[in-house]
Amino acid sequence: TQLLEQSPQFLSIQEGENLTVYCNSSSVFSSLQWYRQEPGEGPVLLVTVVTGGEVKKLKRLTFQFGDARKDSSLHITAAQPGDTGLYLCAGSHHSGGYQKVTFGTGTKLQVIP
Amino acid sequence: NAGVTQTPKFQVLKTGQSMTLQCAQDMNHEYMSWYRQDPGMGLRLIHYSVGAGITDQGEVPNGYNVSRSTTEDFPLRLLSAAPSQTSVYFCASSFSRLGGYTFGSGTRLTVV
To answer: What phi and psi, each to the nearest 5 degrees, are found at residue A82?
Structure first.
């Protein structure tokens, strides 16, 4: 059972376009993170959001945590070829004995120069 | 800073062999996890630890064992390798129960 569903799975856009990636769940999360992964490397943390409705900006990237803490979005303005990569959302939740972090299925983004 | 160090980077095993994937972090993080990454499946949690001596199962624990005797080290043991365990394995650590992991560079394992 996949707790976190990401959409779209694949996205190919031209340089300069805007895009939004979504991360949805029926579960409530204590926090949600976004990572970017490049081929052959481990994921790199971009942001952590904790409060429902929270919005964080990282240069051209805007992250939002849903009011109910069940979903999140990542918006990229004026995409650059350097934004190419696999974007993963991950949620921290209490399951069994302890807090654990579960990842979404990922969105593979290609930005064409 | 070294961050999270995983060894080996590549490994080929025969079915039935056992091995240990090593993971060490130098950030004094309490939280550590092992994930496997397969095409189209994202990252799936195998085992995790919330401190030395405390471990718990993730989504796909079968065929793997872990222990956490020190804060720094969190090895993953494959008991009897199977082709279904062919994957890329990532170790990650965090200072917070809310996530925000630092990942190692991964171990690419092939079981033939």
So the answer is: -70, -10
Separation of alpha carbons B23 and B91, rounded Å: 6
Neighbours of A57 (CB within 10 A): 12
Other CB atoms within 10 Å distance of the CB of residue A44? 14
What does the pLDDT profile of chain A (113 residues) look like in tens digits?
A: 557 999 999 999 999 999 999 999 999 999 999 999 999 999 999 999 999 999 999 999 999 999 999 999 999 999 999 999 999 999 998 776 678 889 998 999 999 99
Pairwise CA distance, residues A110 & B111, whole Å: 31
Q: Do B102 and A45 touch (CB under 8 A)?
A: yes
Residue A112 burial (CB count, 10 A):
11
Strands A10-14 and A61-65: unpaired
User: How many CB contacts within 8 angstroms connect chain A with chain B?
Assistant: 76
Alpha-carbon distances of B52 from B26, B30, B74, rounded to whole Å: 14, 8, 9
Test the A interface: residue of B4, B98, B103 with most A CBs within 10 Å: B98
Distance (Å, rounded) from C-alpha A24 to C-alpha A70? 6
